[in-house]
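Final report, section 2: Outcomes. Of the targets proposed, Ribosomal RNA small subunit methyltransferase E is the one most frequently requested by collaborating groups, and we therefore present its record in full.
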Amino acid sequence: MTAPVFVVDDFGTDGSGHHVLDGPEGRHAVSVKRLRAGEGVVLTDGAGRRAEGEVTGTEGKDRLIVRLGDVVEEPVESPRLTVVQALPKGDRGELAVETMTEVGVDAVVPWAASRCVTQWRGERGLKSLGKWRATAREAGKQSRRTRFPEVADAATTRQVASLVAEADFAAVLHESGTEPLATAELPASGNIVLVVGPEGGVSPEELDLFAQAGARPHRLGRSVLRTSTAGTAAAAVLLARTGRWS
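The predicted structure is given below as tokens.
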């Protein structure tokens, strides 16, 4: 099994090359994971920098002492994949973010589509956004990622259209699409934007706006997936076809 990942703000060490992992991450390592001397760990800042290390000891219930190796920076994946995710009901938004993080999506944009039952407003909206970001962070650790996906502020339809217009390839998942996503012509680099609508579907007005911005409707298969699973399934198709899963 690969070494567990913990998030740090910096990779500072003492004169002997040891780093002290403390705070919530240290407590999780010591009291939950129960790591002991000789076991391996990976520390990351979640933005591409990582360092492998070996546990040399613990202090109390929340301090893990790690002999740290060199800090390296992993290259940015290309093409970059952004999923615009319409707001699902309940906790299915966190489910979508979790599984999209696991497969390798680079960015998630919450979208307040016209047919979304859920709307993020005021404190409730900020709380929901915080949950999505926390989910991306934890799923990034669990899936051993060094770069965690960015979770943007909630976007309006016009903001999504602007994002689509700047993409090298953009698609809207929709049953009206005549072209399968599995055969779409994809760029070798640049930015790919995938738009996933709500349970009630993408409205005709939204489809027209996205089409004007350069995103045609595409279908995955014969079945219709829920909004919380469609993005993950489509991302897997794209990541395999672009060679990022090779």
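The first strand starts at residue 5 and ends at 7.
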